[in-house]
Design a protein that fits this description.
Elements (H helix, E strand, L loop, with lengths): L3 H27 L1 H34 L1
Helix pairs in contact: 1-2
């Protein structure tokens, strides 16, 4: 039962990665000033969000398996 909140956190992390990725790809596809200003920043945020999501996933697996 204690893994339910961790599962919800994992879902939120995955959704955050998808949203950040969509914004980054959309900005890249559109080009222009937004992409020049924020393109690299969005991809850095995506990497950070992915690392957090993987860490939460590993913690979830550890809690479920233990």
């Amino acid at each position: 039962m204690q893994d339910k909140p961790l599962f919800y956190l994992l879902v939120i992390c995955c959704l955050a990665v998808v949203v950040i990725l969509a914004i980054g790809i959309g900005g890249f596809a559109k080009g222009g000033e937004f992409n020049r200003k924020h393109g690299n920043r969005m991809m850095r945020w995506r990497l950070i969000a992915q690392a957090v999501a993987i860490a939460v996933f590993m913690l979830y697996l550890w809690v479920r398996g233990g």
